[in-house]
Every structure is written in C-alpha cells, then in structure tokens.
Amino acid sequence: MRKKIIAGNWKMNKTPSEAKALVAEIKEKVAGATCDVVVCPTAICIPGVVEELKGSNVAVGAQNVHFKESGAYTGELAGNMLKEAGVTYVIIGHSERRQYFGETDETVNLRTKAALEAGLLPIVCVGESLTEREQGITDDTVRRQTKIAFLGISAEDAKKIVIAYEPVWAIGTGKTATAEQADEVCGIIRETIAGLYGKETAEAIRIQYGGSMNAKNAAELLAKPNIDGGLIGGASLKAEDFSVIVEAAK
Ligand code: 3PY
C-alpha cells in the first residue's frame, strides 16, 4: 500500500511574511493528516517556512535544484544548500521550467541525480502538451520523459522519487484531466518504471496527478488506483482548499 503524498507548488507566489502566515494556518488544518504533506514555497521563503513548520507533520520542498554542487552558476541553488536549509523534497522539471527556462529531459535527469546525491527526495514532473495529446502521442511522450529522467539511477534510489504526471494543457488553465485520463497515463508511467526496474519498484513508486487539482475534484482523482497523490498549484495557496485535498488523500 503506497502512502499518498500531497504537495503544494506555490510557484512564484507569497512574500516571506505571507508564506509564514499561510503555513501557520496550513499546519493547524492538516495536523491529523494520514498522508505525506509538503509545501514548496519560493527559495527566499524557505527559511521562514521551515522555522514555522518545526515540529509539524508538514515537510518543505524547493521548486528547483541545480545539478552542480557549487560554482559559477549565477542565480542557482545547489542540493546541499537546500538540504542544510531544512528542505526535504524538490520539484524537478515542472512544465513551466521546461517551457520558460529551457529545462530538457537531460537536465531533468541531471537535477534528479544531484538531488538524490544531496539527500533530497525529487518530485519529477512529466506530461504531454495539448498538441502531443491531440496527435495521440501522450504515451510516447511520458515514456520518453520518464525513461530519460531515471537514466543512471539505481532501483533503490528510484523508489525515493515521486513522479508527478502533469498534462501541460491542464496547468494554470483550470482544465483538469478526467480521473480516467489521469489514471490511464499514471498507469503508463508505472508500466514504464516496471520496464526499467521491475514490478516491485513500480509498485513502490508514488505517482501524483497535477494540473488544476482542487478541493472539488481531488477526491475523485485520488480514488483512482494509479494516483498516489497530487501536486497542487493554485489551490495550495488557500489553507482551507489545501486541507480539503489533504483530507481527501486517505
Ligand atoms: C497546477 O496545478 O497548475 C500545477 O502546475 C501544479 O504543479
């Protein structure tokens, strides 16, 4: 039985004081959660959020990590820096990073390996664009993204990775994949992992759905056999909505 995991991707929202206030509310509301709960604020908000969440059941995630340990990479953050700051998880390869910041399948793989090396737990995002879905190549796309993301990663490390299936056409658009569509693609991702590592690893790995998951549609999505949680965008910025989603992840 896989433990569900609900992670809030705050994207570029909230100042440090707003972030602290939001997690103060969230931690009260999700104190009785039976799933893993994660919030992923912007890097500058991490220290305050970590401080506010001390002693709670809510873990902190970053939204990106660089693949080198240090050096001339202006604006980047290394895994050991995040780790020392109290970060547990890190989102890698979100479609917004692929779309606006030149992230590729190869850099996703490098970042995933660097995160594991630093002792962080990667949340690796995959998902097809609208054109890819319309052309009937959703399966090929998520298979390719998954296979490259996991290149050179041992089965033991693979089990630490959470995969987030986020159809690009459902991100920030208010459009959600139907529970059937989401479950089907999560199943294809699990099959891909089975092809790479065998059934045991595939059954152990957690696959989230992301893409306009909200307080209204979460229960239906989370009831599907291949969906082990959610990576939540806008709804994670409201403590009430986020806690309803956490509650649905039993
Ligand atoms: C969304 O729901 O919009 C997301 O991108 C979650 O990562």
Q: What's the helix and strand layout?
A:
Layout: E1 5-9, H1 16-29, E2 36-40, H2 46-53, E3 58-62, H3 79-84, E4 89-92, H4 95-100, H5 105-117, E5 121-126, H6 130-134, H7 138-149, H8 155-158, E6 162-165, H9 179-197, H10 199-204, E7 206-210, H11 218-222, E8 229-232, H12 239-248
Parallel strand pairs: 1-2, 1-8, 2-3, 3-4, 4-5, 5-6, 6-7, 7-8
Gist?
This protein has 250 residues and is of the alpha/beta class.
Tell me about the largest β-sheet. 8 strands, parallel, barrel
- Return the structural class: alpha/beta
CATH topology tier name: TIM Barrel
Unique ligands: 3-hydroxypyruvic acid
Order of helices and strands: EHEHEHEHHEHHHEHHEHEH
What percentage of residues falls in helices of 4 or more residues? 40-55%
Total of DSSP H or I helical runs spanning 4+ residues: 12
Q: Which architecture does the CATH hierarchy give at level 2?
A: Alpha-Beta Barrel
Query: How much is the radius of gyration in Å?
Result: 17 Å
How confident overall, as mean pLDDT? 97
Catalogue the unreliable spans: none
Distance between the termini: 11 Å
The largest sheet has its strands arranged as: 1-2-3-4-5-6-7-8
Quickly name the level 1 CATH class: Alpha Beta
Number of domains: 1
Number of strands: 8
Q: Which overall shape is indicated by the principal axes computed on the Cα atoms?
A: globular
Strand content: 15-25%
